[in-house]
Design goal:
Length: about 140
């Protein structure tokens, strides 16, 4: 029995590590999204490929993975995308990176959402950083005016 308890604890921890919530927000709960954008994840593409928002907009992105592969959505400017790509290719995969306020990972057939406040004008991206996806062009251009 004493040998079973540590093994059971490891199994419970591993099972919990594989379970991820699919709904995240990067804004205060008191801010309500003014716009929802439906995004389809395909192998290896996002639809739509670009969107335009206004500075100050809170946008809810509703993702549906219609592809056969695991896909990620990570919101950030060009530098954040480059840094995240380096982290993902340096031995950190989506299981170790984990979902955050500006990132989620979805298995094939799953849905999830991210809400984001675009508080400054500029160019941002939503990128998939599963191995090879971002370099193949799996990103959404977000222009904030």
């Amino acid at each position: 029995m004493r040998r079973l308890l540590p093994a059971l604890a490891v199994l419970v921890a591993l099972a919990g590590a594989g379970c991820k919530a699919t709904s995240h927000t990067s804004v205060s709960p008191s801010l309500r999204p003014g716009r929802t954008v439906a995004v389809t994840m395909l192998d290896i593409d996002f639809d739509p490929a670009s969107i335009q928002v206004s500075k100050g907009d809170v946008v809810r992105f509703q993702f549906t993975n219609r592809g056969n592969l695991v896909h990620e959505a990570f919101i950030g400017d060009a530098k954040a995308q480059t840094d995240h790509e380096k982290a993902m290719t340096s031995g950190h995969d989506h299981m170790t990176m984990g979902d955050t306020a500006d990132q989620l990972t979805l298995a094939a057939g799953k849905t999830g959402q991210l809400s984001h406040l675009f508080d400054k004008a500029g160019t941002f991206y939503i990128g998939c950083h599963e191995v090879g996806h971002y370099t193949a062009g799996m990103r959404i251009l977000v222009t904030v005016t």
